[in-house]
Amino acid sequence: MTPIAVCTNVSVVYAGPEAVKALDGVTLEISTGERLALLGRSGSGKTTLLHVLGGLVAPTHGEVLRPRAAAFVFQGGNLLPHFTAVENVSFAAQFARGDASFSPDELLELVGLSRKADHLPAELSGGEQQRVAIARALAQQADLLLCDEPTGHLDSDTAERVLDLLDATQREAGFALVLATHDADVAARLDRALELADGRVQHAEAAA
To answer: What is the pLDDT of residues 67-77, one digit of tens each?
Structure first.
């Protein structure tokens, strides 16, 4: 399969009174359409690796090949608080790579929130906010979707629905999905898992 993102011996060091090595010589390859779990405890380097893959953080050492377009789904949704659900999705659609496949209203319908298009984030539940965040990410038509603990603040039933939605949209749209989690059960839903600890790859295996 064609690689869509590659990290080669990537390290990230955050400067300060005591330098912190968030990533330490990480090498991985992500293929087009692949579903990869980044598994590890808090502080293991999962979020930093997502940020490197998405171009938010530059590596201190090593090389990164990433797609032109990457979209994020953050743990808390990170919606614009004064924008309605449809306005959040519309704002992201401005950065799409080409002509939109779906309108913002259609994307909200896809995630089951067409009736709450005019609601502000504060008027939505945690699960609903995450579904808006997924619609917002899909609006960008990215080749790579990066999810940072997208179910971390959700109850088990809501988390399952969010994961089902990510799974269904990934299979339909064909983007590569990288999902960071501390939950082995969540990781097991994806094609393979990469376990991180102290910024280093500890173990890699097929997760399915």
So the answer is: 888 999 988 77
